[in-house]
Fold this protein.
Amino acid sequence: MMGQEKRKVSICDDSMLIRKKLRDLLETEFDCEVVEAGNGQEGITSYDQTRPEVVFMDIVMPVCDGLSALQEIKRLDQAANVVMLSSTGTSAKLVQALKLGANNFIQKPYDREQIAKAISSIHK
């Protein structure tokens, strides 16, 4: 393939519907290569194997929540770009996510602009 390589993006969310909608948006609008994870533990494993440029991470998930997964991903790679996506927009969780090294925090339902901004703020 000539030209720019596709950005590799990971979506970590326990909602299949949210993963599908975000995947469609990322693939069609932003030409990204997308990997999916259904919970924080899968997200950590997937990050370790694929090293995406950015991870969209839900906070409330079974097995391993987004904050624990964020911590673990940051342990694997200090430079990891993680954007928290959550409908439970409690300020305590937001503050905690940012303290743990999240790059950004987007409240669901997100819009195209927020996703575009999150992707463009990531430097290769």
In short: The two ends are 18 Å apart (CA to CA). The chain has five helices and five strands. Helices lie at 16-30, 40-50, 66-76, 91-99, 112-120.
